Amino acid sequence: MQFDISQRAQRLTSSAIREILKVTEDPSVISFAGGIPSPQTFPVGLMKEACARILDFAPHAALQYAPTEGYTPLREWIAERHGVTADRVLITTGSQQALDLLAKVLIDPGSRILVENPTYLGALQAFSLFEPILTPIECDGEGIVPGALTEETILGARFVYTMPNFQNPTGRRLPVSRRRQLVAAMKAANIVVIEDDPYGELDYSGEPLPTLLSMNPDGVVYLGSFSKIIAPGLRVGYAIAPMPLIKKLVQTKQASDLHTSGFAQRMVYEVLDTGFLDAHLSQIRALYMAQRGAMLASLASHCALSMSWNAPEGGMFLWARVPDSVDAVRLLEKSLAHENGSRVAFVPGAPFYAGKVDAHTLRLSFVTVPPARIEEGVAQLASTLAMLL
Ligand code: PMP
């Protein structure tokens, strides 16, 4: 049978890089590619207890249909943490769903939207289905360059999408002064800011910076997630938005999935209610900091002459660059083709760009590979790179 696939769905394609990276399912591959948290951090014991409590004390409510807005105690917990009222919090099925809902609510075909360059690939995918015109904003090692926010560039845009903390893919963090400039420029131009912040709690500097939401609660939609601090398999995230937008997002979500799993929301709330989060976050930060240290030390000893890289103050990724003569996709292919020696995976930077592509960049995750294998993987990557130089 021939299927008449919609033009919208026809625009979706599988990325060539995703195909290449399929081999990372083989455990013998040392993969710095995954954007996934370390399973060591999942609070399995607490979740078993939480699950038993839910089924003992509220089995019917937990297994029944529930309001689209989300489980009230969880919304209240989030609202308190961010200093907003609970009616501005919508629980979503991962923050990825919030990106999809925002695209549906804010983008018409041809709407102009502003994105960092490079930016999160999953956001580009969610937005692109609704046919916006993407305007990439110039970024440097600290994120969006305030000078690039000229009237000509931003005027008429529906929103700007930004990750001020430990951006995916680059690990960059936007300094406070730039946060203020960004918020002020968008406020003056009456443009909504979408602040995507799944990595904000993974701050190794000890000095968290104020959210854009706190700088202009009426002009910012803040997206949070429990994926990186509890477990991504629960699929629980949230959006904090001004009331007129919340209403539209709720209507859109209703059409999409009625509500996020009430059982999963209660699991998150029960685990949070034990008060474990602060101690848990300290453990995650200590683990990831050690892994970041291992990757930085390995890069310094094996790649100092052939690569440059940054040292992010949080999150899961660092951003590296190989010499102009080497294409990062070619390096990945070569790196996965080894017959003797470890095969090493990473994500080439190209697909993250909405504008001018730097084909010599790559994203390295330091959180899923244990330190001893990080060293082995980086050494192998250095020797593969040397073969291409
Ligand atoms: N935003 C960013 C920047 C991400 O990196 C991710 C996950 N990789 C998401 C959103 C989606 O996360 P989730 O749906 O698990 O909350």
UniProtKB/TrEMBL annotation:
Keywords: Aminotransferase, Pyridoxal phosphate, Transferase
Name under which the protein is recorded: PLP-dependent aminotransferase family protein
Source organism superkingdom: Bacteria
Keyword Transferase tagged: yes
Organism per entry: Trinickia violacea
Cofactor entry: pyridoxal 5'-phosphate
GO molecular function: pyridoxal phosphate binding; transaminase activity
InterPro entries referenced in this protein's UniProt entry, alphabetically: Aminotransferase_I/II_large (IPR004839), Class-I_PLP-dep_aminotransf (IPR050859), PyrdxlP-dep_Trfase (IPR015424), PyrdxlP-dep_Trfase_major (IPR015421), PyrdxlP-dep_Trfase_small (IPR015422)
